[in-house]
Amino acid sequence: MRDSAIPDPFNDLAGMITPDGTHVVWPSNRADGTYQLFTVSLARLTEDPDDPLVRERKLLEAEEARAARGGRGGARGDADAGGDAGGDAGAAGEPAQAGQAGAGALQITVDTSGIQRRAVQLTDDNQSIRAAFLSPDGDTVYYVGSDDRGSALFSLPIAGGEANRLASGGFPGIAPTADGTMVFYRQGGGGFGGGGGSGAVMMMPLRGGGLDNRKERVRFDFTVIVDKQAEWRQIFDEAWRVMKYRFYDPQMHGVDWSSARELYEGLLQYVGQNQDLYDLTNEMIGELNASHTGVSGPSGIDMPETYTTAELGFELAPQGERYVVSHIYADGPADKEWIDLQPGDTILAIDNQRIRPPQNYWQILNHTLNDYVTVTVDPSTRTAAGGAMADNANADPGESHDVRIAKVDSLRNIKYEEWVEANRRYVEEISGGQIAYVHIRSMNQPSLERFENEIDRFWNAKGIVVDIRYNGGGNIDQQLLDILERRPYEYWNNRYASVESGRRPRQAIAGPKVILINRRSASDSEVTPKGFRDLGLGRIVGTPTNGSVIATGSYGLINGGSIRTPGSLVVAYDPSQPGNRGVNLENYGVAPDVWVENTPQDELDGFDRELREAVDEALRMLASGEWQYGGSGRPIR
């Protein structure tokens, strides 16, 4: 439903034309952001569709038409039709034809004048509908939606009326039979379009009552013989074809794509497993010198499950014949007020097994049976700093004792949060509390929500460092730049409020802003600093970004794998160029205003030279007085 006749900013999906060619039914998020069903007449209206007399007449005409065809259907059937009395689950007999039988191909005429005004919303669920299809006569639309009892399959007359709840469930992958008497679907899964189910194939009739009790599993058993060489060739050919017709650049970055195929397909005869095929195909795709590409999928080799290493939240270092706690991760499993463990403590045993250098104690943690691991601690070697911090009377610091620690499978998030907090304390210390620090981990919705909360937290800071190093991308650049671009315009204060508390907007930083980047800032974390610079919002510190900026998607392959295909280019907005289209950000790499890079020695010493320079730059900007908004336009450069 997307063309110049009906321009709008919404998503209109999967339009269905009624068999008589008079209406289109489609899901759209134009109402409230959720996907609901809409219908539109393709011809100009000659009467008010909301007039109750008109609605009643159309329903009667539909009933008469169904009766004349000898079928049942619509949404006004007898009480036994469907799950609830007063509704109907039936689909009418044969599809309606335009004109007389045998009149030939259906002729569809669309009057686009006023078509937007003719659109009528059919459903108004609290959540998005997830699949829809028409009855063969086109008078009824079936859809998977939800009500106060949960997800279900509903029927609804297109001419108007109440939705009828037919059967409970999510019905992933739902597909009706040609005669509209039965549906097939998969157990489990969901999502728009009904996809995502991976369970058993089920069937259910659409006629009669008690449909919840008439669901049946479709039982089948067959053998599939796969010619692996033929399958690998098909995947190779399809990957080449997908890139040819979906790659954003029709010139294929100057590569003769047919010649690339000829160069690599001769090696197919040497492929012996799936990974060989992926490697070969990716070598061919690599000729494009483009990011966001690649074929991946099942390995084809059954790997036995081995073990998961338990993490206890502290690090050990050998000291002579002892293992001593060298670090405890903040907010990790060992950093609890009831656990008497401090840096410098000697660990005598893990899981009741004695340890001492050079023993590999990780072997013990590879095979723990329980959720809690017993650690035997000797605090007599506790460091002075550790002893000063001890505030737990559960055990005598001079005696060995056991602590029970709830193990975790990974410390990744715990280490990340500790790193962010350490950076924040460092920035606060060297800036005298003037500059705020935030790190954006990824360009996704959780990171955006966290960023919004942090701007709310640091709204009164005199400046900010926005760190997007080690960020692999996503798609939230518009929202981030919108927040960073905001400027104060008013105060709303009651007589008892502080002067600053009523600033509008509150979710903004009024002072200098610095973005910190490095070579591991990729994709949308390159789009963001480029827009930041072009909008004149502040300064960029660090090293050039990765140079990997294309809007990508994926395409499924026959063996369950997929190929990533960059379908849209990303160029800067430049009004000095034709069509306002500036530099292509792919293979570009956003350069910093201030170039600084951590050295290997900095990494060993735990010194973040890049962060230090970012704070110094923010302080220089603050001291210059040129980057604070003064109420008369943008900051002076």
Write the SSE topology.
Elements: E1 16-17, E2 23-28, E3 36-41, H1 52-69, H2 115-118, E4 120-121, E5 131-134, E6 140-147, E7 150-157, E8 164-168, E9 175-176, E10 182-186, E11 201-205, E12 216-217, H3 228-246, H4 257-265, H5 274-286, E13 294-296, E14 314-319, E15 322-328, E16 346-350, E17 353-354, H6 362-365, E18 372-378, H7 384-389, E19 401-406, H8 412-430, E20 435-439, H9 445-457, E21 463-467, H10 477-485, E22 490-491, E23 503-504, E24 513-517, H11 524-534, E25 539-542, E26 550-556, E27 562-569, E28 571-573, E29 581-584, E30 594-595, H12 600-605, H13 609-624
Parallel strand pairs: 20-21, 21-24, 24-25, 25-30
Antiparallel strand pairs: 1-2, 2-3, 3-4, 5-6, 6-7, 7-8, 9-10, 10-11, 11-12, 13-27, 14-15, 15-16, 16-17, 16-18, 18-19, 22-23, 26-27, 28-29
Keywords:
30 strands, alpha+beta, Pdz3 Domain, Transcription Regulator spoIIAA, 637 residues, 22% strand, disordered N terminus, single chain, 5-stranded parallel beta sheet, 13 helices, 23% helix
Question: Could you characterize what this model shows?
Answer:
There is one protein chain. The chain is α+β, with helices and mostly antiparallel strands. It is built from 13 helices and 30 strands. The chain has 4 domains: 202 residues, no CATH class; 69 residues, Transcription Regulator spoIIAA; 95 residues, Roll (Pdz3 Domain); 166 residues, 2-enoyl-CoA Hydratase, Chain A, domain 1. Strands 14, 15, 16, 17, 18 and 19 form a 6-stranded antiparallel beta sheet that branches. A 5-stranded parallel beta sheet has the order 20-21-24-25-30, sandwiched between helices. It has a 4-stranded antiparallel beta sheet with strand order 1-2-3-4. Helix 3 packs parallel to helix 5, helix 4 packs antiparallel against helix 5 and helix 10 packs parallel to helix 11.
